[in-house]
Amino acid sequence: MAEKTYHWNCSDLSRGIDNLLQRCVKIKPSETLLLVGETGEDAYYDTDLCMAVKQAADGLGAVVQLEYARPVADGANIPHAVLDKMIKADATVFFSRLGDQTRFTGSPGTGKKVMCYTLTKAHLGSSFATIDHNKMTQMLELLEAHMLTCDSYRIRTRCGTDLVGEIIANKSSEPTREFHLELFPVMIFEPIRCRNLNGSMTISGFITSTSTRAYENSVLKIDAPVKALVKDSMITSFEGDGITEQQVIRQLEKAAELTGGDPYAMHSWHTGINPGTFYEGTPFDNLEKWGTVAYGSPRYTHFHGAGLEPGDAAYSLMDATIEFDGEPIWQDGRFLFLDKPEVRSLLTPPERAVLNSRYRLDIGI
Q: 57-96 pLDDT, tens per residue?
């Protein structure tokens, strides 16, 4: 059972902001910092987060610009006011879904770009965002290096998913970089491409978008589980309630129409690595908003599919057990890798208290 006690200090956001600006962005005096926030009735982010960060950045001597914009359909529709400022900025920080839409496609300008997933002041003041970003990055690099030494993985859940795939044959010590910006806080590893993926996946609860493109009715709530049979990284058939099966097929076809790709392609996957991830409220009120932050939780495994890469439908598996070359790295949604000596040696005792396989907060599911 996930813990119900959260660890934050909403009255003091200084540690989270300092972690963002000095350890992640690494902003220097006189450099130009662009903060991009959301506006509109459907904004996901607290409206005053940008201002709180601006005040701290002003104190560091940065030249700060604020730009608020409504969410758009995809990266090709990002407002020119944002793009023009990005070209000139030394660093851009997104408190906006606009950043997610450039995660795989890139954006103009040579400055550093950061996608921030602290939707609320509670997130920015909690262990989710205050653990030393450099240490979290080192942990991520250790994980990615370890995975690249392996040949295969297996993903299982108690609800019937059992998938086996191969690691792309890249035995270099550096992981392949697909993201075009840095994530704050550290939440996931670079997606693993589905290579010779075989087995079965239980689709239950819901299907959402991948946040790459927004489209109408992007969430499908699923009343009865449907089993998808997978062969060589393609869904070949479904087993389950006939009505629900047809709903799933129509959803995947709709998602694939955005790019003209195959509705049944399985492109890539990742699992959360930040046990401080939490979500307050009811996820089913807005599953897309929930997924924006919840996908950083080790409880949440996230497959991208339908259409051209990176895909426009996301399958969500909860509390998975994931093995690499037979070694469990996640066990029932708990991130065992955090307990390895080489990870623990990076951390102070207070950091170890919230970065371990036993620490897990409520994400509402």
A: 999 999 999 999 887 766 677 888 888 999 999 999 999 9
Three-state DSSP at 69 gives: strand
- Compute the distance between CA of residue 194 and CA of residue 228 in angstroms, rounded to an integer: 15
Sign of the CA dihedral running 86, 90, 95, 101 = positive
Classify strands 195-208 and 32-38 as parallel, antiparallel or unpaired.
unpaired
**How far apart are alpha carbons 342 and 355 in whole angstroms?**
13
Q: Residue 251's domain spans which residues?
A: 133-168+179-352
Domain count, the chain: 2
**What is the CATH number for 125?**
3.40.50.2300
Q: Which of 99, 46, 89 is nearest to 65 (CA)?
A: 89
Tell me: the pLDDT tens digits for 305-340? 999 998 999 999 999 999 999 999 999 999 999 999
Q: CA 351: distance to chain centroid?
A: 22
**Is residue 221 a contact partner of residue 244, using CB atoms and an 8 Å limit?**
no
Residues 216, 348, single domain; the answer is: yes
